[in-house]
Amino acid sequence: SVYDLENIGSDNKFDLIMCNSTIQYLDQERAFSLFSKLLSSDGTILMLWNHAIGYYIKRLIREAALLNIWGVYYCLSVLIVSPLKLLLFGKYSHDNFVSFRKLNQISSKYGLHLQLIETPQAFDYKEIFLLFPYVFSCKISYRKR
């Protein structure tokens, strides 16, 4: 897990860190703090298939059509409960939707620069669903000084 990386000494730097469809399951503040410590000055972080709000809206519609009560509950917890938990208690849930804007705000605190890149085609992933961001991918590096 990303948190196992906290045990790596600060002398170890990486040229490439990949997060494929994982950042929505992590405390993003903690993850970016860790990435900034582990990324070499010329390194890159690739984050592919980040689940945005449209992913959970589409999944909610699909689960409701299938009459899957647990699937509906899960989607509603991500869309409603997770943001409320973060807003009221400052705690991340085990799953939450992310936005490029939010990740960009967090990463800039650590001197990192996000750049949207084309999302690789996989599964039924699209970049937009019903005018909402569905999934997005980004490339992250240190800001050039």
> Total strand count, please?
6
Catalogue the unreliable spans.
none
Listing every helix as H and every strand as E from the N terminus to the C terminus, the arrangement reads EHEHHHEEEE
User: How many individual helices?
Assistant: 4
How much of the sequence is in beta strands? 25-35%
For the largest beta sheet, what order do the strands appear in spatially? 1-2-6-3
Distance between the termini: 31 Å
**C-alpha Rg, in Å?**
16 Å
Main sheet record: 4 strands, mixed
Helix-and-strand structural type: alpha+beta
> What global shape is seen?
globular
Oligomer: single chain
Please describe what this structure looks like.
With 145 residues, the chain is of the alpha+beta class. 37% of the residues lie in helices and 26% in strands. It is built from 4 helices and 6 strands, in the order βαβαααββββ. It has helices at 28-38, 53-65, 69-89, 100-108; strands at residues 14-20, 39-51, 112-117, 128-129, 132-133, 135-142. The chain has a 4-stranded mixed sheet with strand order 1-2-6-3. The chain has a two-stranded antiparallel ribbon with strand order 4-5. Strand 1 (14-20), helix 1 (28-38) and strand 2 (39-51) form a beta-alpha-beta unit. The mean pLDDT is 78.
